[in-house]
Amino acid sequence: MTESAKGHLALIFFSIFVAGNYSLGSMAAPYMDATALMALRFVFAGILMGAIVMVRRPVAFAQVTGYWRYLLLGTVFAVYFVSLFEALKTSSAVTIGAMFTLVPFFTAGFAFFLIQQKTTAYVLGLLSIAAIGAVWVIFRGDPAQLMAFELGRGEKIFFIGVIAHALYVPLLRKLDRGEPVMVSTFGVLAGGSIPLLLFSFPELLATDWSAVPGIVWIALAYIVVFATLITFALLVYANQRLPSVSTMAYTYLVPSWVILWEVLLGHGMVTTPILVGIALTIAPMLIWLRY
Questions:
Q1: Do the beta carbons of residue 84 and residue 161 sit within 8 Å?
Q2: CA neighbours closer than 13 Å in the CB half-sphere of residue 272
Q3: DSSP assignment letter at 126
Q4: Could you tell me the sign of the dihedral formed by the alpha carbons of 164, 168, 174, 175, in that order?
Q5: CB-based contacts of 15, cutoff 8 Å, min separation 6
Q6: Second label for 273, Cα 20 to 30 Å away, from 4, 80, 117, 225?
Q7: Cβ atoms 56, 182 nearer than 8 A
Q8: Which domain holds residue 138?
Q9: Do 233 and 185 meet the contact criterion of CB atoms below 8 Å apart?
Q10: Is the distance from CB of 279 to CB of 44 less than 8 angstroms?
Q11: Is residue 2 predicted with pLDDT exceeding 90?
């Protein structure tokens, strides 16, 4: 298998694990402050990844320079995750998952300014089709709602997260100094933990941990292992082998995986108009695989 093929395979699993983040996150979001939950996520995941690095490549830490890079990268990614869980308190997992497909569109712009990575008109056309599909889902397939431009609170909050995630990928490429994937993942987790702990410390102290529902711990376990450690590693792995826009193109699959997750979790099916929008987000991905 070529290095490029390995990158594509990694991104398929990346999209599946990211989708689970939305469905399980929507179940846990009402019961805990988003920043506090993300602080636990980054800290626990950072401890686990740090232990893995210490066991497998203990000398790798000594090779790391420029710690400010990880503080910046971690902060940017923390903004994405906090906005995600805050948005899930008032918006559906399918809608937020569809908004995530807007990331490649903004990634193309950031990649041009940060790493001078140009995007062809053909690729921009594919991104535009996916963006139309995402907008269709965001407005629930209702032309009247689209014309009235009535975005909900959750969608407005998550738009900030979309921008943060789009910035993260080319920024990661720009600041990369050839560190191993595990070390980079640990660095981002550690860097993100600092601002999250600072902002959520009062909330963490005030939380009655004995009253926290079981779904919060289940969701936290999933997002720490699958939606943080593994997706971070997969994204870094793929980003080292594929262009930034190609890397984020796999976000087009996220809404479809979210629907599957929702069905498996017993949350019901979505309406036909929304499925039309989902199809528009998938179509560019199918074309992309032939590009």
A1: yes
A2: 0
A3: H
A4: positive
A5: 250, 251, 253, 254, 257
A6: 80
A7: yes
A8: 3-288
A9: yes
A10: no
A11: no
Residue 91's CB is within 10 A of a number of other CB atoms, namely 24
Burial class (CB in 10 A: 0-12, 13-18, 19+), 83: buried
User: What is the per-residue DSSP string for 224-284?
Assistant: HIIIIIIHHHHHHHHHTTS-HHHHHHGGGGHHHHHHHHHHHTT--PPPHHHHHHHHHHHHH
Which amino acid makes up residue 179?
E
With tokens 């506090």, the residue in question is: 36
Q: Are 97 and 133 within 8 A, CB to CB?
A: no
Q: Which two tokens stand for residue 42?
A: 């980054």
Structure tokens that stand for 123 in this block:
């690729």
Q: What is the number of structural domains in the chain?
A: 1
Is 214 a residue whose pLDDT tops 70? Answer: yes
Q: What is the pLDDT of residues 96-155, one digit of tens each?
A: 877 887 887 788 888 888 877 776 777 777 777 777 776 776 666 667 666 655 678 888
pTM recorded for the entire structure:
0.78
